[in-house]
Amino acid sequence: MAPGGFRGKVLRVDLTRGDLREEELDLSGARDFLGSKGYAARLLFKELAPGTDPLSPQNKLVIMTGPLTGLAGGPMPNRFSVCTRSPLTGAWVDSHCGGHFGPELKFAGWDGIVIEGRAEQPVHLRIRDSLVELVPATHLWGKGTFETMRTVQNEEGAGKRLPRVLSIGPAGECLCRIAAVIADVR
Fold first, then answer.
1. How many whole angstroms from its chain centre is CA 52?
2. How many Å apart are CA 153 and CA 165, to the nearest integer?
């Protein structure tokens, strides 16, 4: 584990190419822009061109944990952030989430995920510790967020840890400008 509550790595997902790669967490940046929101803001500021269309493949979605995420006995150890350029306003937007997803991401060895590009067909990102893959998700298309989560949990739940799921549902699939990412039903 990297110092200061970090794992030291970020997963970069390029949906256009189907490319998944591990990147080193910029520990200096993580300390200077402490917390999930701070690091995500810095990353998006560095990587997004001004005027990037929020619904284009050039936009990025950053899911980031902070140094206290997953820390037993720490304050609010279940928090993580989902950050991007807002489809509604074109400005910065971030959501702070609780539940099990953030700690489980950290337990799997990741500080965060950067998602970019656009897949040709529906896919979902499967993370099982260091095993990461994009798998077909056509059968999930059109399902509500709760049904999507339960379906994935039933399909993937043959391990010690219950799969944790983030999903967008039909509003996100249809590029609704006020769609939300929903986490953890069970």
1. 20
2. 8
pLDDT attached to residue 2: 67
> Which residue, chain included where needed, has tokens 């953890």?
184
pLDDT tens, residue by residue, 136-156: 999 999 999 999 999 998 888
Half-sphere exposure of 105 (CA within 13 A, CB side): 34
Q: What pLDDT is recorded for position 73?
A: 76
Tokens 């489809």 correspond to: 87
Q: How would you classify the pairing of strands 92-97 and 19-24?
A: unpaired
Q: Which regions in the chain score pLDDT beneath 70?
A: 1-3, 158-160, 185-186
Q: Determine contact, residues 47/151, Cβ cutoff 8 Å.
A: no
User: Helices in the chain by DSSP H: which ranges?
Assistant: 27-32, 36-47, 101-107, 145-156, 169-173
Q: How far apart are CA 76 and CA 45, in angstroms?
A: 26
3 state SS of 150: helix
